[in-house]
Write a structure and sequence with these properties.
Elements lengths: L21 H11 L2 E6 L1 H9 L28 H6 L2 E7 L8 H21 L4 E3 L3 H9 L3 E8 L8 H9 L2 E5 L23 H13 L2 E3 L5 H10 L5 E5 L13 H4 L2 H4 L2 E4 L3 H4 L1 H20 L4 H14 L11 H9 L4 H17 L15 H10 L22 E3 L3
Parallel strand pairs: 1-2, 1-9, 2-4, 3-4, 4-5, 5-6, 7-8
Helix pairs in contact: 1-15, 2-4, 6-7, 12-13, 14-15
């Protein structure tokens, strides 16, 4: 039976590192244990910008890709930044829209797997397709970025265990049970509940994924679905990109009732960096702005210019209080107080990767992103790290301190 891919990544960095600054800590930590990124949306960018025709794409540097986007946004990922961010293993998301009917979603997912495999094959000096944990280790030894694929949403299998098996056969190694809408067999966190979690067929999906060796991803699913999946699972689950709901109340985040069950399951939460899922003040501001937009659209029906003027005036009157660039006061504080702690190295590594991936230049959509003290609490809650940790994870001191992969997710 295939080794579950996440097992090589479960241990946080726990070897003592002598470094004076967070940057030094990050550099040393990531040299010893490269980042395993749980979710990257490059494949849907390839579909949306180039129709999956990538002959003219220069993936070494995508910082000039604004013209290919309807709103002028440049891509967040390229080989240069993956290398700068010390990414050692990458789950490429083969997401397709939930607006598709299931047969179309199945076809589109196959197309996304195809373009991802073609992208990996096009850059053999940097990327290596990984289908097993042994493949990840082999890629690391060769200095390449292990490239895995995950489906984001159960609509990708068309409610068919046969399709699930064939998706595994062509390379998918995790599946998020839902995206932003319910499937016929599982409830999403952001849709009206229909099933109170998983249906009987949904339980069979989880069981078959366990049998195949495909990771069950519970990001995006409802709390009831999380519990039902944990009840059914015989192998560790993952949350490929989620935060802690006790810190940020977004429905996409993991509630304490589920976090408490993860140690027994052996599962992990890979920390999300998407602003609205991390910063509660920003989430509330965005919700208030959305409500005002709905009010203005109703008030000025058929007059979009008046509605736009109204929301612009509202934004000037009630601006987001967050700074336009991320700040990391907690890293320095924690590093000074506990320079050898796991959380210190995790936060420093996160900073380094985000710096490499985004260059600290936020797009207008994330202009309110500001890391402050709650970020350390999020990492502590989701990764089960004690504030006074000295290389101890989950309150248990390991027989030997070691590190495999740093678990971080970026949008």
């Amino acid at each position: 039976m295939h080794r579950t891919l996440s097992l090589a990544a479960l241990a946080l960095i726990a070897t003592p590192l002598a470094a004076e600054t967070p940057e030094d800590v990050a550099e040393a930590a990531l040299e010893a244990a490269p980042v395993w990124d749980g979710h990257n949306d490059v494949p849907i960018q390839l579909r949306g910008r180039w129709g999956n025709v990538i002959g003219d794409l220069d993936f070494h540097d995508t910082t000039a890709t604004g013209p290919e986007h309807s709103e002028g946004r440049t891509m967040h990922t390229d080989l240069k930044r993956l290398r700068q961010g010390k990414v050692g293993a990458q789950f490429w998301s083969v997401y397709v829209s939930t607006s598709m009917e299931e047969p179309q979603a199945v076809q589109a997912t196959i197309e996304q797997i195809d373009v991802t495999r073609r992208l990996v094959a096009r850059y053999p000096d940097d990327l290596m397709l990984a289908l097993t944990a042994d493949d990840v280790e082999a890629a690391r030894k060769q200095g390449k970025i292990a490239s895995l694929m995950g489906m984001e949403g159960g609509h990708s299998i068309g409610s068919s265990l046969g399709v699930l098996r064939q998706m595994y056969a062509i390379g998918a190694r995790y599946m998020t049970l839902t995206h932003n809408r319910n499937t016929p067999w599982a409830d999403s966190a952001t849709d009206t509940p229909e099933h109170d979690g998983l249906t009987d067929f949904g339980v069979k999906v989880v069981q078959e994924m366990n049998r195949l060796g495909m990771l069950v991803d519970l990001s995006h699913v409802s709390e009831a679905t999380m519990h039902d999946a944990l009840d059914a699972a015989k192998a560790p689950v993952i949350f490929s990109h989620s935060g802690a709901r006790a810190i940020n109340g977004h429905a996409r985040n993991v509630p304490d009732s589920v976090l408490k069950r993860l140690p027994a399951n052996g599962g992990i939460v890979m920390v999300v960096a998407y602003p609205a899922y991390v910063d509660e003040e920003l989430r509330l501001w965005l919700a208030a702005r959305k409500a005002e937009e709905a009010r203005l659209d109703s008030l000025w029906q058929g007059q979009p210019e008046a509605a736009k003027a109204g929301i612009d005036a509202w934004t000037r009157r009630i601006p987001c209080s967050k700074s336009p660039s991320p700040t990391w006061p907690t890293i320095s504080t924690i590093s000074v107080k506990w320079p050898g702690s796991t959380i210190s190295r995790t936060l420093a590594a996160t900073r380094m990767m985000l710096t490499a991936r985004w260059g600290w230049k936020m797009s207008p959509a994330t202009r309110c992103f500001s890391w402050n003290s709650p970020d350390a609490v999020i990492v502590r809650r989701t990764l089960k790290i004690s504030w006074h940790d000295r290389g101890v994870r989950g309150g248990q001191r390991p027989a030997k301190r070691r590190g495999d992969m740093t678990l971080i997710e970026t949008a």
